Amino acid sequence: MFSGIAGPLGKKRELLDEGFVRELHPQMFDRTWQWAGTLRQSNKNIGVDWTQVAVKLRDLLDNTRYQIENHVFNEDELTVRFHHQLVLIHAFPNGNGRHARLMADLLSTRLGGPRLTWGGASASLTPVGEIRDRYLVALRAADQGRMDGLIELARS
């Protein structure tokens, strides 16, 4: 239904699948961290309790499939809400924002839309700067249920 990026044999993978979520992380970071793709096993200053990561991730994937099938939100809002919840879960020790943005981009394209721009084609949210500050403010507002700023940034 919602296929992901091609696997090692060129087969499309289910995007809203825990295995895909976990396999994408090392595709992004295996040259940076040996543990890439491994769910975190300790609490951080952000994210759900580490013992709940797998459960919350599964819930997010199930809820997102339901929201898509039942047209609960328009594509942009659904994709940005998915991104926000994935960041909030904070499944990995590091790289969660970049991973969640790529997952959201993939979801957007699977739903027939363009990739999200996250502040502009040449913008980077990794280094300290004005766009990253806007992103963090928008994430904090989304924590309070106000999604408009994050949706706007994702499409700016």
Task: Provide an overview of this structure.
The chain is mainly alpha-helical. It has a single domain, classed as Fido-like domain (Fic-like fold). 51% of the residues lie in helices and 4% in strands. Strands 1-2 form a two-stranded antiparallel ribbon. Strand 1 and strand 2 (12-14) form a beta hairpin. Helix 2 packs antiparallel against helix 3 and helix 3 packs antiparallel against helix 4 (96-110). The chain is globular. Mean pLDDT is 90; it is low at 6-10.
Structural class: mainly alpha
So, CATH architecture? Orthogonal Bundle
How many β-strand runs? 2
At the fourth CATH level, what is the homologous superfamily? Fido-like domain
Q: What is the H/E order?
A: EEHHHHHH
Contiguous low-pLDDT stretches (5 residues minimum) are 6-10
Which fold name fills CATH's third level, the topology?
A: Fic-like fold
Q: What is the CATH C level class, in words?
A: Mainly Alpha
How many domains is the backbone divided into? 1
Strand content: under 5%
Taking Cα atoms only, what radius of gyration do you get, to the nearest Å? 15 Å
- Specify the helix fraction band: 40-55%
- Tally of helical runs: 6
Strand order of the largest sheet: 1-2
Quick take:
With 156 residues, the chain is mainly α. It has helices at residues 18-29, 53-69, 75-89, 96-110, 130-143, 148-154; strands at 3-6, 12-14. It has one domain (3-112): Orthogonal Bundle (Fic-like fold).
